[in-house]
Amino acid sequence: MFFIVGPTASGKSEIGADVARELNAEIVSADAFQLYRGLDLLSAKPDASTLVKAPHHLIGTFPFSEEMNAEKFRRLALRAIEETNSRGKLAILVGGSGLYIKALTHGLAPLPKSDPKLREKLDAMSLAELRSELIELDPQTARKIDVKNRRRLVRALEICLLIGKPASEVVAGGADPGLPGSTIPATGVFVFRDREELYSRINQRVEAMFEKGVIEEVRAAGATSATASQMIGLREIRELLEGRMSLSQCIAEIQQATRRYAKRQLTWFRRQTNFSPLNLSLLTHNEARILLRTRSEVRTRND
Questions:
Q1: In terms of residue numbers, what domain contains 292?
Q2: Which of 25, 37, 246, 291 supports an S-S bond with 90, CB 3.0-4.6 Å?
Q3: Span of 73-82, 102-111, 166-175, 184-193 with lowest mean pLDDT
């Protein structure tokens, strides 16, 4: 197993597919939103010319109505990796969803299922009340998660209240001992670009999405689960369709939200010291491809 991780718009999908083609390997995606069918533009799925280079797994797999979480992803990814390895091929995991990647490299402790009565109580609380209670019960989690993300606040509080201790004490724990091969040695690279270049790529990609028809894509989308609803740009474009936002404002807000997300991803992966950093701004595409292919081959020989 070889990892190519990094922030959105860094170019990891393209370079990962090129490396996989040269090594006759297969790609396992670790993107929380590319898992869903549809909204190909909004979720920045690899285009057809990229997908054809090598088999890809966990892209366009589930309907928008289905909930997704790190534990479910881990099981699906492990199955895809095992099937790839059974064919005598290297699996290359490519993505930027940090929690999903950590679920593979570190495993996840078993967490309690949602309790309907408690969830109803938490759903009735304001965002400020949720933040305040989480800070009191689990300050470590409160410092790490996006405190503007209501769904994550509710789930963190729910875990605290159901298990009677901070969620951070169990979420950071080891893998499910009943799942063979539930953690994977984290060998790979963290690819990134200089901030100015990365932000420029993000801005250009958002503009291209609108030129290619992302508004109609969102208009045609059906009901979405709480997980799928967190996709950057979905809320903004729906507000545009409802006449509550101008086109220029919509584009600008999606660009800003994506830049902020990329910044959070950069912070996350820089803390993952097991991934070797690789600045793509300092290399041509071919230089980076050759370097990654060599490192992947070394990983294969060591297995």
A1: 2-108+177-302
A2: 25
A3: 166-175
Residue given tokens 């289905």 in the structure block: 66
Q: What is the mean pLDDT of residues 173-179?
A: 40
d(CA 107, CA 103): 5
- Residue 91 structure tokens: 């699996």
Give Dmax over CA atoms of the chain in angstroms: 57
> How many other C-beta atoms are found inside a 10 Å radius of the C-beta of residue 51?
16
Q: Which helix (H) or strand (E) holds 192?
A: strand 188-192
**CA distance linking residue 174 with residue 279, whole number of Å:** 31
Distance CA 214, CA 144 (A): 32
pTM, rounded to two decimals: 0.79
Q: What is the pLDDT of residues 1-17, one digit of tens each?
A: 899 999 999 999 999 99
Is it the case that residue 59 has pLDDT exceeding 90?
Answer: yes
End-of-domain residue from the set 149, 171, 193 = 171
**Please, is 286 exposed, middle or buried when counting C-beta atoms within 10 Å of its C-beta (0-12, 13-18, 19+)?**
exposed
